[in-house]
Automatic annotation (TrEMBL):
Signal peptide: none
Sorted UniProt keywords: Methyltransferase, Transferase
MF (Gene Ontology): O-methyltransferase activity
Taxonomic source organism: Sphingomonas jatrophae
Residues forming coiled coils: none
Protein name in UniProt: Methyltransferase, FkbM family
Length: 232
């Protein structure tokens, strides 16, 4: 015979299961099930929207925030986010300088020839070597078409599987000329042993407003997570 107490417990358990986010709903929820992030890189941080979410979800994590626009980087600093260190520079395939194309919306700033603002460029590998960073738990990349170059600059860390999870912004159809095609990003990361975990933030075509998928933010995970028990 089921007691009232046992029935209440079963109902609460069932309710939690029904209301908890499903895989693919929230990248930070899914990430927390895979690993306990202690080191996070926010590449193409804009004005710190993602870093703010990271700091709230993982309050003990060290978060390195990379934003090439000096004005946008300053806006992030003014937020005074816990655990966030802001770097006013771009990340790419090699160290040097580049130009940033500006616009009315900071979210659309991008590295391009003949841009408006000169910026310094570093690589993830070189930055980690300088800072003696041995492992990154999560790298989020959103650089408006420069994501593959950022990955190439992390070739050493990726080859050694010292990055646990990587999220990129990918173009999902031929009409999208801004973002790196998903196939190119997938091929590069799979070449280092990484595998696709899921898609997030899927958006249909704009400005034509066609129903086909324009872009998405796929998450890839390193081989070391394949056999690892879920994070507790």
């Amino acid at each position: 015979m089921i007691t009232r107490k046992r029935l209440a417990h079963a109902l609460r358990k069932r309710w939690r299961k029904l209301t908890e986010p499903r895989r693919g709903d929230d990248v930070l929820v899914d990430l927390s099930r895979l690993v306990k992030p202690a080191m996070i890189f926010d590449v193409g941080a804009n004005i710190g929207q993602s870093s703010q979410k990271f700091a709230r979800r993982f309050p003990s994590a060290a978060i390195h925030c990379f934003e090439p626009s000096a004005a946008s980087a300053q806006r992030i600093r003014e937020r005074k986010l816990r655990g966030v260190e802001v770097h006013a520079l771009a990340l790419g395939s090699e160290a040097g300088t580049a130009t940033l194309t500006l616009g009315a919306d900071p979210a659309t700033f991008r590295i391009a020839d003949g841009g408006d603002e000169a910026v310094a460029v570093d690589t993830i590998d070189a930055f980690c070597a300088t800072r003696s960073i041995q492992r990154i738990d999560f790298v989020k990349i959103d650089t408006e078409g420069h994501d593959l170059e950022v990955l190439k600059g992390a070739a050493g860390m990726l080859a050694a599987h010292r990055i646990a999870a990587v999220q990129v912004e990918a173009g999902m159809n031929p009409e999208n000329k801004l973002h790196v095609p998903f196939e190119a990003l997938k091929a590069y990361l799979e070449g280092h042993g990484y595998r696709l975990f899921g898609f997030y933030d899927q958006a249909s075509e704009w400005p034509t407003r066609q129903p086909h998928l324009r872009r998405a933010n796929p998450l890839f995970v390193s081989p070391e997570l394949f056999a690892r028990p879920a994070a507790r």
